[in-house]
Amino acid sequence: MAEPWPPGETPEEQAERVAAYERLTRAARRADLPLEKLAGMLRQITANEAEARRFLTEEVYGVSDELLDDLVRVRLEQLSRQEES
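^ that's the sequence the OP posted. Answer follows.
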């Protein structure tokens, strides 16, 4: 089965993704989960992430996708500081 995601940007990221994929496939085999079903589940996760990002960029924050990660990181830091107060 081909990896159900695009390759990583750096060699380190690629290696991490391959290792994670291998752990998933071993776990699926131990659980008698067909790899085709695992691939379908991973595709659904990818689709869910894309839809969540679209919703956050368009409906919640009104920013470009490129800015979303930074915006969420800053917001989570703000919330963390508020909880500490």
